[in-house]
Write a structure and sequence with these properties.
- It is a single chain.
- The chain is of the alpha/beta class and about 200 residues long.
- The chain has a single domain (about 5-195), classed as Rossmann fold, CATH 3.40.50.150.
- About 35% of the residues lie in helices and about 25% in strands.
- Helix 3 (about 40-50) packs across helix 4 (about 65-75).
- It is globular, with a radius of gyration of 15 Å.
- The N and C termini lie far apart (about 45 Å).
- Bound molecules: S-adenosylmethionine (SAM).
- S-adenosylmethionine binds near residues 62, 64 and 68.
């Protein structure tokens, strides 16, 4: 069965996650773009509207094949780095030319310091990175740093992710939230969020 036809949005281990995206890397772009993948464009636009400096380094955490980096570049961000746990996805990101640098990470790795903006587009979600990844990303930001991320419908229905979002607001302010299209071809929506660290 093709990856996009499998049940995707359900809990899985980091090893299973990496295997899923390894097997999906070749057809990921065609599959999600064919279903109208809208979240990268929505979140990139929202981040560009609040970012104090579009030239500041931005980390595209869980960059995948680079669709998210391309969306961020299209909104004017000029210094985009990316990381992902799946080398086969990173190979495609490299080919986009949207990134200053790319590196493979291990599940749970904290991003390096030096990024006032982190985007995690379609990453902190059921079936991909666990809910506590949100705190790892917030911890890596400097004061006033921004993290933009998205929860799809399946993730919005999972208490662990909603609890993580609530807890994140102990140390950050939710400055943007919008529910809209995610994969219209799959009849799926997402909420996009931007938190500013205190
Ligand atoms: C749905 S794709 C999104 C990719 C890209 N951001 C986009 O919008 O097309 C999810 C990505 O998250 C990566 N991922 C899953 N768990 C991760 C983790 N714990 N840390 C970093 N990346 C992870 C996967 O390898 C995959 O490339």
């Amino acid at each position: 069965m093709a990856t996009f036809d499998k049940p995707l949005w359900q809990p899985r281990s980091p090893e299973e996650t990496r295997a899923l995206y390894r097997d999906w890397a070749e057809t990921y772009d065609a599959d999600v773009q064919g279903a109208g993948y809208a979240t990268p464009g929505r979140l990139a636009q929202a981040l560009a509207a609040v970012a104090p400096d579009l030239t500041a380094p931005l980390l595209d955490f869980g960059c995948g094949t680079g669709l998210s980096g391309r969306a961020l570049a299209a909104q004017g961000f000029t210094t985009i780095d990316g990381t992902d746990i799946t080398p086969e996805m990173l190979d495609h990101a490299q080919a986009t030319g949207a990134y200053r640098k790319l590196w493979p990470s291990a599940p749970g790795d904290a991003p390096p310091p030096g990024y006032p903006i982190i985007a995690a587009i379609g990453v902190v979600s059921l079936g991909a990175a666990p809910a506590d990844t949100l705190h790892v990303l917030l911890d890596a930001l400097p004061p006033n740093g921004l993290v933009g991320f998205s929860f799809n419908d399946a993730t919005l229905a999972d208490a662990s992710y909603m609890d993580a979002l609530a807890k994140a607001q102990d140390t950050a302010t939710l400055i943007h939230e919008a529910y809209g299209d995610h994969l219209p071809g799959k009849n799926m929506k997402s909420s996009i969020y931007i938190l500013r660290k205190s």
